[in-house]
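Try this one yourself first.
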């Protein structure tokens, strides 16, 4: 007959520093995701070329719209999950566990700030400098934001 070993459950309270750090990690991730979603929206329109007085036609008109990239949200979720997984493996003291969480806080912050800065810099400089009446290869900031360019 097999013997069953009983394990004593670990008590985790709301005042436990590691539990508080995990809660802070999840809440910071949610707050950064909301901030990124709100700050990564922009649009601009412009027409290149002069208006033709004979035909009344303008040059090529372009509308560029910037929206959040789902890859940034996935990256935030992966960082949170990796922090929880790393702590779930155990064997960490409280200072080491808090250091793991602190590194995850900074990674999430840097991902969001870098995505916003790179996305906005690209969005506000590149589209206006391109002549869309001709074909061009444009390097989009794909992992940071999504840019939708419509010409007519």
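Now uncover the answer:
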């Amino acid at each position: 007959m097999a013997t069953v070993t009983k394990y004593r459950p670990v008590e985790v309270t709301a005042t436990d520093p590691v539990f508080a750090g995990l809660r802070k990690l999840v809440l910071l991730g949610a707050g950064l995701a909301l901030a990124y979603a709100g700050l990564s929206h922009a649009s601009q329109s412009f027409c290149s070329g002069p208006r033709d007085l004979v035909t009344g036609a303008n040059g090529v008109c372009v509308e560029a719209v910037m929206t959040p990239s789902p890859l940034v949200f996935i990256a935030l979720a992966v960082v949170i999950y990796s922090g929880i997984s790393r702590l779930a493996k155990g064997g960490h003291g409280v200072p080491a566990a808090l250091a793991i969480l602190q590194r995850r806080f900074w990674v999430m912050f840097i991902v969001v700030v870098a995505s916003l800065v790179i996305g906005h810099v690209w969005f506000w400089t590149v589209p206006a400098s391109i002549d869309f009446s001709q074909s061009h290869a444009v390097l989009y900031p794909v992992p940071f934001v999504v840019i939708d360019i419509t010409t007519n």
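Discussion: Residues 94-125 form the longest helix (32 residues). The chain has one domain: 17-151.
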